[in-house]
Amino acid sequence: DERDVRLAEDLARRAAISVDNARLFREAKEAVQVRDEFLSIASHELKTPLTPLRLKLHSMRRSARSSEGAMDAETLRAHLDVAERQVARLSRLIDSLLDVSRIGAGKLELDWEDVDLAEVVREVVGRFEPQASKAGCAVTVRAPGPVIGRWDRLRLEQVVTNLLSNALKYGAGKPVELSVSTEAGHALLLVCDQGIGIESGNLSRIFERFERAVSERHYGGLGLGLYITRTIVQALGGTIEARSTPGEGSTFIVTLPGVSAEHSLQTPVS
Ligand code: ADP
Predict the structure, then answer these.
(1) Which stretches are annotated as coiled coil (predicted)?
(2) pLDDT (0 to 100) of residue 250
(3) Which of 27, 57, 109, 223 could cross-link with 212 by S-S, CB 3.0 to 4.6 Å?
(4) With 0-12 CB in 10 A as exposed, 13-18 as middle and 19+ as buried, what is 36?
(5) How far is the centre of ligand 1, averaged over its atoms, from the C-alpha of 170 (Å)?
(6) Rounded mean pLDDT of 57-61?
(7) 240 lines ligand 1 (CB under 6 A)
(8) What ipTM was estimated for this complex?
(9) What's residue 24's pLDDT?
(10) Are 152 and 110 in contact (CB under 8 A)?
(11) Which of 167, 204, 182, 154 is nearest to 255 (CA)?
(12) Which of 100, 166, 176 to mutate to test the pocket of ligand 1 (most atoms within 8 A of CB)?
């Protein structure tokens, strides 16, 4: 009768709530696990640069104290190079952590100004030139002309830097190509490598916070770069996606709205 129906409904509701609770509990447990794993990776990554830094400082200190004469200028320069590189690495890691906490607090502020995306790309590629040529990796830029829009220069530099450094890191030393163009009032940036690629099951996850598809510690990294990159691109009103074939390479596609019409290279629709 009616009471039985109500009882059954009540039981069903309770069952649904307990299924919900179990799911919430499982998700919370997973989140705690991810956070713990991230903390351990982050501590490791922050500690890694300290070893060579300490070693080089130590031998410079010994040389300064030495009565048999200090190290020669070339050795000193090489020591300073290593020390500076490790400090830069630490500073990049800390910047990423600060960005993530800024994003979490909803405090990622943008400085809107007219920026030429093609120029930003060439500048960032220039900055990576020593690293790329040392790795024997050819980086080419295809940009038929300026692509100017109202964006945030420093944040755009960060987007290009993250995508290019990933292309070099996971690019297996093969050529990398960046191309800038416009399409229907949007800027289009493609960063293309022929490296290790990404399994299709991981493609959607790589933009998540703390997500690292490559578990081998060999590559290092915090798994924050693409999360920060996507957040910036979205804050600029754009989109980012990745296409990849494992073993053949990956292409990251960024679109940004708001290309100034007078600078747009697209052929006008008549
Ligand atoms: P990180 O490189 O520090 O791990 P990212 O957020 O930059 O963090 O990238 C997340 C993951 O996406 C990487 O761990 C890697 O597995 C994968 N990935 C990113 N870019 C590429 C690429 N160009 N080729 C292959 N895998 C990539």
Answers:
(1) 73-100
(2) 98
(3) 223
(4) exposed
(5) 7
(6) 93
(7) no
(8) 0.98
(9) 92
(10) yes
(11) 182
(12) 166
